[in-house]
Amino acid sequence: MSRVAVAVIGAGAIGRAHCETIRRSESCRLAAIAEPAAAGKTYAESLGVPWYADARDLLGIMKPDAAIIATPNATHREFAIACIERGIVALVEKPIASTLADAAAIAAASERAGVAVLVGHHRRHNPITRRARSLIAEGALGRLTSATVLATFYKPADYFEVAWRREPGGGPVLINLIHEIDLVRHLCGEIASVQAVVSNAVRGFDVEDSAAILLRLAGGALVTLSLSDTAASPWSWDLASGESLNYPPQPAAVQTHFLSGTEGALALPTLDYWHYSSAKSWFAPISRDSVGVERGDPYLAQIDHLARVVRGSEAPLITARDGMLTLRATMAVHKAAKTGQIVRPDQEMEL
User: Fold this and answer.
1) What would the pLDDT profile of 3-57 be if each residue is shown by its tens digit?
2) Which of 38, 64, 197, 277 could form a disulfide with 7 if both were Cys (CB 3.0 to 4.6 A apart)?
3) Which residues form the Gfo/Idh/MocA-like oxidoreductase N-terminal domain (predicted)?
4) Record: fold of 4-123+298-317
5) Where in the chain are the domains?
6) Are the C-beta atoms of residues 266 and 140 closer than 8 Å to each other?
7) Which superfamily does 126-293+329-339 belong to?
C-alpha cells in the first residue's frame, strides 16, 4: 500500500516537528512544505521536498492526500477551509482556531462537505490515555466523583523574549491548560460549568502565570486544576509522561492526574489503580495495582491515525467540532476569571 502524501503548512517549531515525525512514519510521506519565510525554503530543500511560499499554491497545484496546518492560530480557519474545499483531509494544530466563530466555521464546513478535519490534541493518542479511557469505560472506577490535575512547571526567562507570550492569549491557559481540558473531556466527560481565578503576581506580565480552576462535569463530578508556568515543579504531564524527548527524564515516577470514583481510583501517567479487595471503607486496607501498558510515541500514533482516516478505515479521534468544544471550555476559564462568575460553556458562543 502506498504511503499517504502529507503536506505541512507552516514550518515553525511545531511544523518542523511534524515533518520529522512524518519522516519516521511507515504510513505517510512528506509531500511538500508551505512556509513564507526564507528559512522554510532552506528547510524544505534539506529534506528534498517541494517548497511553496503560499499554501494556496501548494493545495491547488499538488493536492496532497492530507495537510497539517501548523500556522498561527488566526490563520487556521482560512487554511482548513481551503483544504476542505479541495477534498483534502486536514490535521489542524491546537487550538483549532483563535475564536469560537472560526472554530464553528471549520466544523460546519467539514460536516457539510464530508471531509474530515482532525485537531492536534496528541495526548489522546498516548497509550497511557487509551488504557485509562478503557479502564474507565470498563467500570474500574465506578461512578466518577472527583479528579485533580496538576500542571505546574517552569518556563525560563528567554521563553518570554517573544512578545506575544507576555500578552493576553499567550499565557499558560490557552497554551498549556487546553491540553488538560481536552484530557478531562476525553476521559471524564463534558464540562457543565467553570469557575476560575488567575494571577500574574510572579512575573507581572499582562497575561496570567498561574490559575486555579474548578470544573463541574455533566455527570456531577468535580475537577480541580492547578496551573502555573512559574513553578519549580515536576508535576506536569509533559515532564512526567516521557512522551516527548524535549524534556529530560524524571528521576522518579511522578503522578499528575488523579481520578477518583465509587469503585476505585486511578493516577496518571503511572496508571496506578487503587481499589478495595473486600468491603469499601476508609477503615479497610486498600490495594494498589500497577496497570501495565506499552509506551509509545503519541505524535507518531497521531500521524498514523491521520493516514487511516485518509484511507477511510478510521473516523477521527478528535473532530473539528470536538476541538471546538475543548476551545470553548478553555476560553470559559478566562471569562470565569475575568467576571468572577460561574460560566456554563454550553450557553456561550463567543467568550
Assistant:
1) 999 999 999 999 999 999 999 999 999 999 999 999 999 999 999 999 999 999 9
2) 64
3) 5-121
4) Rossmann fold (3.40.50)
5) 4-123+298-317, 126-293+329-339
6) yes
7) Dihydrodipicolinate Reductase; domain 2 (3.30.360.10)
